[in-house]
């Protein structure tokens, strides 16, 4: 499915609609891989997911800390949102050292990973890929499928 968003608000609404359709994994975490160039809307989309999941703190890309874990409110279909930015990782082993296998093993986790191509070797085969394309200052093309 491809959608053109023409504002930050539309990108966040698309994220909210997406999360409403997404079901938690049965035996492992749900992984959403966000692919696209710098400034293409990956973090804005993650902010929309976080808001739709009830996270009230400001969500920024964890570029320098690599991962940020948010506990979700009781009653949410997921227990935690794990936001990972693999942009600065030199080797896939760096993600492994952060306990990625343990995060992946928990069905209540929603793992959103920016720059997934940098750590593709440790990502599960079953994930949702979302592709972002910068069109102009306010317009993005966002497409996803399983």
From TrEMBL:
InterPro entries: P-loop_NTPase, T6A_TsaE
GO biological process: tRNA threonylcarbamoyladenosine modification
UniProt main location, coarse: cytoplasm
Keyword flag Membrane: no
SUPFAM superfamilies given in the database record: P-loop containing nucleoside triphosphate hydrolases
Keywords: ATP-binding, Cytoplasm, Magnesium, Metal-binding, Nucleotide-binding, Transferase, tRNA processing
GO cellular component: a single term: cytoplasm
Gene Ontology MF terms in the entry: ATP binding; metal ion binding; transferase activity
Localization annotation: Cytoplasm
Keyword Cytoplasm belongs to the record: yes
Recorded family membership: Belongs to the TsaE family.
Protein name (Swiss-Prot/TrEMBL): tRNA threonylcarbamoyladenosine biosynthesis protein TsaE
Species lineage: Bacteria, Candidatus Vogeliibacteriota
């Amino acid at each position: 499915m491809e959608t053109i968003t023409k504002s930050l608000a539309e990108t966040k609404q698309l994220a909210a609609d997406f999360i409403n359709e997404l079901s938690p994994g049965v035996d492992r975490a749900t992984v959403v891989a966000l692919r696209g160039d710098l400034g293409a809307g990956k973090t804005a989309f993650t902010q929309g997911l976080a808001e739709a999941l009830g996270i009230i703190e400001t969500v920024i890309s964890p570029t320098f800390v690599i991962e940020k874990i948010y506990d979700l409110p009781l009653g949410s279909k997921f227990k935690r949102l794990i936001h990972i930015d693999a942009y600065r990782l030199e080797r896939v082993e760096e993600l492994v050292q952060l306990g990625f296998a343990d995060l992946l093993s928990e069905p209540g986790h929603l793992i959103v990973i920016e720059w997934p191509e940098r750590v593709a070797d440790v990502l599960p085969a079953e994930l949702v890929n979302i592709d972002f394309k910068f069109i102009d200052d306010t317009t993005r093309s966002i497409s996803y499928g399983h």
